[in-house]
Amino acid sequence: MIDTEILIDAAPGRVWEVLTDFASYPDWNPMIRRASGDLTPGARLNLHFEPEGQKGKDFRPKLMTADPGRELRWLGNPGFKGLLESQHYFILEGQPGGKTRLLHGMDVYGLLGAVVGKKLESSTTGPFTDMNRALKARAESA
Asked: Is the pLDDT of residue 79 over 70?
């Protein structure tokens, strides 16, 4: 399991706006370089992950939750259903003063989850934190 968080000096609606504006990802996102898709649960997203210094990879996760201003969550399945699956999530919590606490992480599970999860944690915590900081900067700049 990978868990990161950051406090953003912007309301959850503004953070949601930035997070779900997939067309603008190339302008600010250091982890997900390209994204597209419909924000309807059950739809497939098209994502290109390419954190700094890592090889890029395309994914087509299934959108599980798109609750405006509250939660965005997708189910990733790298071709090993039941063996290795993941849920990537962004949870937005309103805070006093019009701020947002962003919880950003990924749950890894399946028969290989424990083994692969440790490796993923070491290679993704930094990129998740980088994306959080970039999202914060973009949301606060409006």
From this structure: no
